[in-house]
Amino acid sequence: MKINKAELEAVAVKASQYPPEDIPEIAFAGRSNVGKSSLLNLITGRKALARVSGSPGKTRTINFYRCDDLFRIVDLPGYGFAKVSRSESEKWGAMIEGYLENRRNLRKVVQLVDIRHKPSAQDVQMYDYLKYYGLDGIVVATKADKVGNNQKAACIKTIRQTLGMSREDKVIPVSALKKTGDEELLEVIVSLL
Length: 193
Ligand SMILES: Nc1nc2c(ncn2[C@@H]2O[C@H](COP(=O)(O)OP(=O)(O)OP(=O)(O)O)[C@@H](O)[C@H]2O)c(=O)[nH]1
Ligand SMILES: [Mg+2]
Known about the structure:
By secondary structure, this protein is an alpha/beta fold.
């Protein structure tokens, strides 16, 4: 499967700004700078659909991307960004939770973690939260180009263990740089729709 047409449909900080719940949605969650927006560009085949930045905290709104009038990918603001004030980070948390807890057409949340690092306490907290709402099960290990092939299996094992994933759950290594892993992820997404 390939996405032929993708467009930014809505930018929201509150529920009244969300698009209608007419088509299913898949959301991307993860730490700031982990590569959510880059992944979105990779799987839509659009180089600059979502803004990518070397400095964390780029995406600060909930961005809804309509894909082939079939489903939406929802790019969530990154968490764990040290340079924002506590009150601002609480506001983002509430914004993300407000979306995740009330969105009836949300099918799954793809959680992104950097393949090189053991998931942080906040990643674990996020994954537990997704489990509670039945939105867990798909993890993307980003920046897969940064580790050698012989290290990959060990990195994925650490991710599985730290997040407490079940055997049937998936970890998909992806590289936005090398353009790998996107087809496997798209297949999984399509199977959820
Ligand atoms: N080497 C490598 N770098 C990547 C990859 N994906 C993203 N990056 C880099 O990581 C940085 C952050 O990427 P973004 O896609 O903006 O990350 P984000 O998760 O959307 O960040 P926020 O919007 O701040 O939450 C950028 O400098 C990207 O170029 C990848 O697969 N490989
Ligand atoms: Mg982003």
